[in-house]
Task: structure prediction
Amino acid sequence: MKTIKQLLMLLQCSLLMCFLINPLHAQTAPDPALLAEIDQIKAFDNHAHPLKVVGAGETDTEYDALPPEGLEDAPLPLRLRPDNLELVGAWRELYGYGFADMSEAHLQTLRAAKQRVARAQGDNFPNWVLDWLHIETMLANRIVLGRGLAAPRFRWVAFDDALLLPLDNNALKQINPDYRVFYPGEERLLKRYLAAANYDAPPAQFADYLSKVVTPTLEGQKRNGAVAIKFEAAYLRALDFADPPEAEARRVYARYVRGGEPPAAEYKLLQDYLLRYVAREAGRLGLAVHFHTGSGIGGYFGVSGSNPLLLEPLCNDPALRKTNFVLIHGGYPFARQTQALFAKPNVYADFSAQTFVTYPRELSTVIRSWLEFMPEKVLFATDAFAVTPDVGWEDIAWLSNHTARRALALALTGMMQDGEITRARARELAHMVLHDNAAKLYQVQ
Result:
């Protein structure tokens, strides 16, 4: 009979073997026929930052409410670095790039090819990109859509963090260098929303701010084609939104709306109330609410404050059950925590950004785990955005699209080989992830 010490040693060995074996569980090669079909599915991209078409000498400054220009230098993930040779594949397919390297002489030919295609396509360039990538619909996270980005191919996701920041933000800007870059953009956007409501400053009465600024802003976004609104709050604070009474929010607003720096705890209370108000109104209007979750750009980004589990009280609020929440980036590196939140009836997630932070094999383990739990909650997305003048949003869209489809094929192949699903079910799941789940969520066909 084994002693307690021997049993404990056996248990420790078993646990060690589990940790050693689990990383090797990922499928290593996709089923060729399944991958071929997945590559042809017309996809619905849940999250991206496409650039509008611009004229000579014009730049696009409305691709994000928090543009990263001005941030201190911070290392990029390996696959996002401009010298990533995977990008050659994008250039070869989209622009006929005939080289296997990135020498300056060869990049000159790439730039010329990009200019030729841009001139030839004109306002159709964004649609041309989607056609190449077999993407039917892309949700464009932008201040406004802009030239060349029109429905039905591009659907608008509006930014609304600015509505949470009607008071003096100077104290917040001093917390870290990233905040000094990001908060002014939100202040400019709030002025834009106030001007549209015929105000040059937030109204003196809190009730007026809610009824004459916040609600009309959301209603206007819906009228102008938005299918969702986006909170990048994790770039500005932690996602620990509490549920304060309206009287407390009204008190803070009244005390500081005409000047003075609100203490951090007081300002948080007001932001928390406003977030829930916006989310309720979004639900009333049929707008999904997107949250950036998980890792972010900037050397001072607070990853722990972006854990999707911080949003659980929001997801559990009975007053918000008519509001659909979408966890952008799937909370990476908190993918398991994201999966747990799928048990909420109104929570969904995409795996954008994981498509260029990780490689297909690792991403396939996340997708497989999600599919084995609640497949109807899983959304495809690219998080396409421009990195440099040479690495445009279309190149990152290609990289993400290529990674996502192969990761999905790997996940489904493993599930077939383990006898969890049939080939017919694998095909059904592929269409759900790449298109049908999002089309149903946003009621867009």
User: Anything to note?
Assistant: The chain has a mean pLDDT of 94. The two ends are 65 Å apart (CA to CA). Residues 217 and 223 are 10 Å apart (CA to CA). The chain has one domain: 27-80+122-442.
